[in-house]
Specification:
Elements (H helix, E strand, L loop, with lengths): L15 E11 L6 E7 L2 E6 L6 E5 L6 E6 L6 E7 L2 E6 L4 E6 L5 E6 L7 E3 L4 E4 L4 E5 L6 E6 L1 E2 L2 E2 L3 E7 L2 E6 L4 E5 L6 E6 L16 E6 L6 E5 L4 E12 L1
InterPro entries: QCT, Quino_amine_DH_bsu, WD40/YVTN_repeat-like_dom_sf
GO molecular function: glutaminyl-peptide cyclotransferase activity
Pfam families: Glu_cyclase_2
Length: about 250
């Protein structure tokens, strides 16, 4: 993987929204966060790393792990999403996606992935997957089969390194690997609608390791509350997008 610096610099004139922090909650500082989702007001997290990848149910306010299932050591966990009565988890380079019973986290089956798995969400009809490129893949939830791809463009420029995904109000929101901002994507045509600046979340007086990148977006569908975190971050943030506050 390339050595990239943290950045919230804007390379385009596309509008960028600001946020305010509503609350901050403890987060496992050892969790290499790859996926985050809220279902029925419960927080689920998928983590990565060979020999340390898990899918877990977490108490949102305390960060306490309530239940978890470990992946085999040979698999590197990636993005997660909910689907009906299941939770779905990608792996990075194993070519395997995993299905779990949402209530018990018991394994339900597998499906095949071509190439790398990164982020995952759904629009109510399809699973939507990223692979670290500028493309989103739309998958058939019945068997994980790829149906189509969508190239994400900011004007005429492809937006690379799409990572963790969340479907928010008819848009796909994505972390950009090694950047402190989210990108808002129109799932109909792949055009970037704007960015969300999260550059102020990490405290200036706290050291930050190179692997502690922003990654993890979850929206509570019952309340609309938005939560973000990062890989090995000690905090989970409840944030609010400030409409009309742009750079």
């Amino acid at each position: 993987m390339p050595r990239l610096g943290f950045s919230s610099a804007l390379a385009t004139q596309t509008p960028t929204l600001q946020v305010r922090v509503v609350a901050r909650f403890p987060h496992d500082p050892n969790a290499f966060t790859q996926g985050l989702v809220i279902v029925d007001s419960e927080l689920y997290e998928g983590t990565g790393g060979y020999g340390e990848s898990v899918l877990r149910r977490v108490d949102l306010k305390t960060g306490r792990v309530l239940e978890q299932v470990e992946l085999p050591d040979r698999w590197f966990g990636e993005g997660i999403t909910d689907w009906q009565d299941e939770l779905i988890q990608l792996t990075w380079r194993a070519g395997v996606g995993l299905r779990y019973d949402k209530a018990t986290l018991a394994p339900r089956g597998r499906f095949s992935i071509r190439g790398e798995g990164w982020g995952l969400t759904h629009d109510g009809r399809h699973w939507i997957m990223s692979d670290g490129s500028a493309e989103l893949r739309f998958l058939d939830p019945a068997d994980g089969r790829e149906l189509r791809r969508l190239r994400v463009m900011d004007g005429a420029k492809p937006v690379q390194r799409l990572n963790e995904l969340e479907y928010v109000g008819g848009e796909v929101w994505a972390n950009l690997w090694y950047e402190d901002r989210l990108v808002r994507i129109d799932p109909a045509n792949g055009q970037v609608l704007g960015y969300i600046d999260l550059g102020g979340l990490w405290p200036d007086d706290q050291p930050r390791r190179h692997d502690q990148v922003l990654n993890g977006i979850a929206v509570d569908p019952q309340t609309g509350d938005l939560f973000v975190t990062g890989k090995r971050w000690p905090w989970l943030y409840h944030i609010e997008v400030i409409e009309g506050a742009t750079d």
